[in-house]
Amino acid sequence: MSKSLIPPLIFLALCLFGLPLVLSALWVKVVTSAAIFALAAAGISVLFAQLGLINLAQIALVGVGGWIALRLNYGTALPVILIVAIAGVATAIIGAILALPALRMRGLYLALVTLMAAGAFQILFNAFQFPNGGEGFWGVARQSAADIRSPLMVQSDAGYLRYTIVIVGLCFGLVALHRVTAPGRAWAMIRQSEANAMAAGVNVTFYKIWAFALSGLLAGVAGALLSNALGQLDARSFLASEGILLFALAVVGGAYSWVGAVIAGILYKLLPALLNDFGVSADIALIIFGAALLHAIMTAPRGIAGQLMGTLQRKPT
Predict the structure, then answer these.
(1) To pair with 141 at 20 to 30 A between CA atoms, which of 79, 194, 195, 209?
(2) Cβ neighbours of residue 253 under 8 Å, at least 6 residues apart?
(3) b/e per residue 9-28 (b: at least 16 CB within 10 A)
(4) What angle do CA 138, 144, 150 make, to 5 degrees?
C-alpha cells in the first residue's frame, strides 16, 4: 500500500466508526451536511486546481442532483443507491454542457457565465420547486410532503452518516485516481499552456469537458445525498450567492488536496452551526470567511490545507 493512502484511510476510518458514536443526534445531521458539501467543494477543486477554471454554479448543480434524486425517489421504485448514481451521471451531463463556454473563456468571463447559469437555475428552482411526492412531471404537491425512501439497511441518522462517508470517500478516491492517470496529466499540460498541450497531442476540448463532467458528477451525487439526508429540499438553499461562497471556501480550505475540500465543508456547514450553538449570529461566519479568503489570497495560495501539510512535513532543525 502506498504511504500516501495511509492518512486518508485513517481519517476515513475515524469518521466512519468514531463520529457516529460521539456526536449527538443534531450534530450527526450537521456533520452529514458538512461531508456532503465537502464533496461538492471537491468538484470545484477539480476545475480550479487542475485547470485554473472558476465554476460558480456548483451549488446550483447540487440542486439539480437533488431535484433528480427526489423525482426518482418518489416516482420510481429504483434502489436509492442507484438513484444516487443516476443523479450523478445526469448532473455530469449538465456539467459537461457548462463546459462549452470554458472552451473559449477563462478567468472573470467564465466566472460570470457560470454565475449567470447559477442564477438561471435559481429562477427555475423558485418557479417549479422540488418534488415532494405530488402528481405530474414536476411531482409537487400542495399538501405536506410524502416520506422519502431511505437507503437499504440505513435505519438511523448515524447509519446515514456512515453511508454518506463511504460514498464521499469513494468519490474522493475517484478524484485522486483522475489526478494520477491520463486525465490528470492532460489537465496539468493544459493548465501550463493550451498551445503546448495541443502540440503534444492532448485533446484540449475533450479533457476540459471531462473535468466539468467530473465536477458535475460530484455535485449531483452530493445533491442526491442531501435530498435523502433532509427528506426535502428548499429552493432558498440553492441561491447563486451560495455558489460564490462555496467557491471561496474551497480556495480558503485548499483546492489542491482532499483535505481542503473537507475543510471547506466544515467551514460551510459546521462553523455556522457552532456559532448558533454558542448564541452568536451565523452571519458572523461571513466576516470570518472574508478574512480567511484575504489571508489565502495574500499569504496562503494553497489554502489552510497547504499550510497544515507544510507544517507537518517541515523537518525540525
Answers:
(1) 79
(2) 41, 259, 260, 261, 262, 263, 264, 266, 267, 303, 304, 305
(3) eeebeebeeebbeebeeebb
(4) 75
57-104 residue pLDDT tens: 999 999 999 999 999 999 888 999 999 999 999 999 999 999 988 788
Answer yes or no: pTM beyond 0.85. Answer: yes
End-to-end Cα spacing for the chain: 30
Choose the CATH number for 36-139+146-313 among 1.25.40, 2.60.120, 1.10.3470, 1.10.1040. 1.10.3470
At 267, give phi and psi (nearest 5°). Answer: -65, -40
The cell numbers describing 82, all together, are 442507484
pLDDT in tens, 13-64: 888 778 888 888 889 999 999 999 999 999 999 999 999 999 999 999 999 9
Contacts of 193 (CB under 8 A, 6+ apart): none
Chain CA centroid to CA 132, Å: 23
